[in-house]
Write a structure and sequence with these properties.
CATH class: Alpha Beta
GO cellular component, one term: cytoplasm
Distance between the termini: 24 Å
Order of helices and strands: EEHH
Largest sheet: 2 strands, antiparallel
CATH topology: Alpha-Beta Plaits
Strand order of the largest sheet: 1-2
Radius of gyration: 12 Å
CATH architecture: 2-Layer Sandwich
Mean pLDDT: 96
Helix content: 10-25%
Organism: Solemya velum gill symbiont
Pfam families: Fer4_7
Keywords: 4Fe-4S, Electron transport, Iron, Iron-sulfur, Lyase, Metal-binding, Repeat, Transport
Strand content: 5-15%
GO molecular function, one term: 4 iron, 4 sulfur cluster binding
Number of domains: 1
């Protein structure tokens, strides 16, 4: 399941550099997450790094992008293969 940043985001800039896939970017109002690049850090870390550093707890799972651990790992493998 990809993650999403809610409108509670305070634009503190701490999540974007933590994303190993480059899925987080500055949107019009708040930071946003590209669900095609978000693997919840599967393949990189044990926990989602953006969630770990977020001071306002505004990065829940995105109910519109439900994925299993296997699907997240497959996405990680695709992303890393494309960047190689």
């Amino acid at each position: 399941m990809a993650l999403i940043i809610t409108d509670e985001c305070i634009n503190c800039d701490v999540c974007e550099p933590e994303c190993p896939n480059g899925a987080i970017y500055q949107g019009d109002e708040i930071y946003e997450i590209d669900p095609d690049l978000c693997t919840e850090c599967v393949g990189h870390y044990e926990t989602s790094q953006c969630v770990e550093v977020c001071p306002v707890d505004c990065i829940p799972h995105d109910p519109d992008h439900v994925e299993s651990q296997e699907e997240l790992m497959a996405k990680y493998e695709r992303i890393t293969a494309e960047s190689a």
